[in-house]
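Need tokens for this chain, all 467 residues.
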Amino acid sequence: MYREQLEAYFQDKQDMLVDAVCRLVSIDSVEGEPAPGAPFGPGPAAALEEGLKLAQEWGLITQNHEGYVGTADLCDKADALHILGHLDVVAPGEGWTVTQPYQPRVVDGLIYGRGTDDDKGPVVASLLAMKAVKDLGVPLKSNCRLIMGTNEESGSGDIAWYFARHPFAPATFSPDSGYPVINTEKGGLKPTFTRSWPVQEALPRVKWLHGGFRINVLPGDAEAAVEGLTLHDVHPFARDITARTGITFTCTSQDGCTVIHAKGEGSHAAWPEGGNNAVTGLIALLCALPLADGPCKEALNQLNTLLPHGDYHGRALGIAQSEPIAGDLTVAFTLLEVTETGLTGRFDSRVPLCATKENCENVARAAFEQSGFTFEGEQEEAHHTPADSPFVQTLLKRYEEYTGQKGECLSTGGGTYVHEIPGGVAFGCTMPGFDTHLHGADERVKIADLMLSAKLFAHIILDLCAE
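Here are the structure tokens for all 467 residues:
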């Protein structure tokens, strides 16, 4: 009924979409120190201000909810649909080649920059869909509300704050994953483990290690300082570990130590097989070096046993498991800090529907505690919305209509805003088979995918909200 109108409307809207995406991507919106009106720092607050400004320019009703989220409404009627997107981003990391993270660039039909795919581009597609519905003047019986968050990458405290004060809508989707419909999100186990020891005088020893910068990012870089071994001593071991792991090492002399930089490939922690973990590669090298016996060496050897390089399914930890809907459990060792007196680390495990406290959390906890580590953290349950729900069937119907591809429900290891929302699903904005370099260098999005999403979202809004 509405497709011809929407196709005609969007014929000349591509430049508008690209310009809007670039406006948002130009803002560094990594989490920072909280301030009044900016609970997650100045960057997310600036991006939220720009997102609300854009929504106002496009004729939508906006509100800033104390800096936690911003909302854009089509009308003042009761909500029938919530679209949940976010304007915060992960840190840029290293290795950008096409452009700099906050200097968006269009190349061959792609927009490059941090947040183009996750999730500023999809937010713009959602806003443009709402603008289309408004401009077409279709009478509405209910409202669509876009909720623009500012803390999705660092705990989703923004959405928790919002829904503690506002009701859920009958239907909710988040364009923060891919197509067709993601109706299952794995649960999570993201503990912190620690171990302490007295300063060790015997050489050679590890003086410090820095690895990872965010719990949900598989680290592509890590660095350690070894005292008591020369560059010449380390090189043959580094060559052997590189041959076994693919991690490359660069060694320099600094302040009487040999500083070892490990270079792998970063990726989202939900899909650790897509990267090459620099932290576990560096641990493998340190365990191969002729270090003096001591508690630091012992702890690193135990970590190398519990979370060895290339074990992305928790086999060594004893928690590997799988089921048909959500698939395999995954484990990414993402954070590690070692000092002269101890270590603190974290891993990010995405767990399927069959994972329980008994067969996952308790097993991992026992393995670490038996090796002398403290272990703190509780398992989060998986999220599942039945594929036969009327809302999911509407999404699949429109997806098939606009793409010509088969619609189906999928699971993801990635977590989105809908994880705690009854009946919520992830929907868009990436078509199957395209690598957006999510959370990595040269993040990118297809302009065509965003335009398709804007049309698709507009039709779904009309399905749920039109008279």
